[in-house]
Amino acid sequence: MFDKILIANRGEIACRIIRSARALGVKSVAVYSQVDKSALHVALADQAVAIGGPAPRDSYLRGQAIIQAALATGAQAIHPGYGFLSENPDFVAAVQDAGLVFIGPSESAIRAMGLKDAAKALMHDAGVPVVPGYHGANQDPEHLAGAADAIGYPVLIKAVAGGGGKGMRLVERPEDFAEALDSAKSEAATAFGNDAVLVEKFILKPRHIEMQIFGDGVEAVHLFERDCSLQRRHQKVIEEAPAPGMTEEMRAAMGQAAVRAAQAIGYKGAGTVEFIVDGARGLRPDGFWFMEMNTRLQVEHPVTEAITGIDLVEWQLRVAAGEGLPLGQDALSISGHAFEARLYAEDVPAGFLPATGRLRHLRFSEGARNDTGVRSGDEISPWYDPMIAKVITHGPTRALALKRLEAALGGTEVAGTVTNLGFLSALTRHAGFRAGDVDTGLIARDLDMLCHQKAPEFWQVAAAAALAIDLAHLTDPLAGFAQAGLIWQSVALEDVAPLHIAVTGPAQARVRLDDNEVSVSAEGGALRVEGAPELVRGICAAGRITLFGAMPCDFVLCDPLERENGADAASDLVLAPMPGLVKAVFVAVGDSVEIGARLAILEAMKMEHTLTAARAGIIAEVLAQPGAQVEAGTALVVLEDEA
Ligand code: ADP
Ligand code: ADP
Ligand code: MG
After folding, report:
1. Do 227 and 262 share a domain, yes or no?
2. Fewer CB in a 10 Å sphere around the end CB: N or C, the chain?
3. What pLDDT is recorded for position 566?
């Protein structure tokens, strides 16, 4: 076993790797960018090395700097985590050239699976079923359109170099093909520097079921499947293992196909073979097709760990250190059921917009495994993926594991940024999901219901008022005592009718809204509110009040000094809707644009946002350059005044 390894990553995955390394007696070296100087992964590691500026290309993507850090600290191996350099074959080669071990597959295995078209061809030859389609070299639009006709609509256009759902377009009718092809190619060119695409049959009622595999370079085993069908925009939201409705027969067929895939490329380490399954026909041994292979540890690996009792990072270190596979296929079995929910800083109703902010408060439920890379007080910065944590639960049955997930999410407390916590909680109560009737369209179909925010109940408003005046700390024995009776003060919350609160005693108050009045008292870190179903926990910080629990909700304290933004001036300005990186600008000063014209592309980790013209006009100013990192609200393009 190694004495010391370097982890070429950040966030939750770096922390998670450090823990397994420590359990094996292996020391760990962290690397960090300027903005991560006091990050959790740096604090947890035995040593840490600064590798540059906040932008990934200036730090976590600087292969040579990372290799130098490993050599300088005496680390013998490098674990890449996921993302960043994890699937970069040139990095693997450079690590090995420096005399270090790459904890992962070989350069050639990564190359073989790097492009979806080549991977599909390879898998087809290895006898693994692939999605019917065209994955050849001819990129002539006429030819691709002909291929789509031959496959039969609907079809999916995919960037061969794609990932994270980018460069992918669903086309339902032949007349839409040409335009979809153009936009897929241009998105692929910006995102991956490679505009080649493939065309494949779009599977109706698709389920995403993937197989965890593990190889030692010669032999390979599978560690069963994960169902990742709960997706928004082709990105996973909640994953589970095993897959609901899976039969022994289909599991065996998928497992064998995945192991064949791994053996075909002499796979070493942890990997995932992703399949698309036709859920409309039920789970059957001839109803799954290879989509792609991810040659790394996957974000959702903990659900596999929960049902197999295996530490996959431990296996990665042991195999990289030269041991054979720790267990054979016959020694592996499934115990119970597990779920993982990805908790993000994001604004769900606004279209899952990534968010940022300082975490004023962060507390996890004890009934779950919570993999995180942040603590209370840490910042979710615009530079990286805005994932706050993965909440993982396990139980003897699917129903119990799901109940535990619901409870764990209800007990998770985050303040300081908007999150998808309420959305995740609503998902755990979705009838179709509860019944195991999942497909990749579930979230999109029921989005309105899943993000529906009810007007707050009076008890929630009352709790917010108590938090606003910090009732818990008004413990003076004379609190509320006044000759003239109760003293009512007003609390102004955005979108809430005027509220009044009067202190009636130590840590006690009454809250009045219109004709309603309830009592509130603070007890042991929570509030007892008349009419509330349970004790209420929450926090007031930086002008925002957050209530935790099964139905988390947020209130904004009105700032009397704040002025309305001039609404008409805004239509001349195209603003960045979120912090991000300007990927492309399509217009120049003097251009005349139609309403809806593409002006620029803004990227915030894992999502590209196309900014379009809200009205027709002439471009007066272009304030953003490709490559610039911008804050939310930064003006990017200015249209000439209409008058
Ligand atoms: P998985 O395929 O494991 O379900 P996703 O596809 O949602 O996970 O995300 C994994 C990919 O997303 C990574 O390979 C990487 O491209 C990107 N990614 C996710 N998190 C980060 C991060 N913190 N930094 C950089 N890239 C990330
Ligand atoms: P990425 O590299 O972006 O992860 P994938 O090829 O893995 O791309 O596809 C991502 C998601 O897109 C899948 O999980 C699935 O939801 C959907 N998808 C991919 N291929 C198909 C298909 N042929 N039919 C229906 N849905 C598909
Ligand atoms: Mg994928």
Report:
1. yes
2. C
3. 36
